[in-house]
Amino acid sequence: MIYSERLGVPLWWWPVAVAITFLLAAEIHMGAPGIRAWLPYVVLLPLPVWALLWLGRIRVEVTAADSQTPAELRVGRAHLPLELISRGGAVPRTAKSAAMGRQLDPMAFVVHRPWVAEMALVVLNDPDDPTPYWLISTRKPAQLLAALGLEPSQG
What we know:
Number of domains: 2
Low-confidence stretches: none
Strand order of the largest sheet: 1-2-3-4
Number of helices: 5
Largest sheet: 4 strands, antiparallel
Mean pLDDT: 89
Distance between the termini: 26 Å
Shape: elongated
Helix content: 25-40%
Number of strands: 8
Radius of gyration: 21 Å
């Protein structure tokens, strides 16, 4: 593994999600005795943990080549051999809305997480693939582009 990053949710989301779920469970409980005293907490409190883990499940990885597989860029379940990448660039926070708006090619592969401020743009050089580029959320675009063997430039 040359580069690995998990696009997890911000840490401050965890106490907020648990507090909101706790309030919802307390509303259901409302001081009632018996099963309504503990069941809402047991049922509802695991839900924000599962939801936040699920939201932050995407990994961005660059793997090294070995005898059986080529070096790859992996984003979630998608993978791209590094030899198909022609160039790339960093998309700063200030240009993110433009890159995701009018300038976005409908055929592009996009993995966007709103809580990640920056993105990386990876342009493909594959005549058999209609996808012109990958647009990937990453907290460290310069490190990702360096792991891909590209010069980090502002896109």
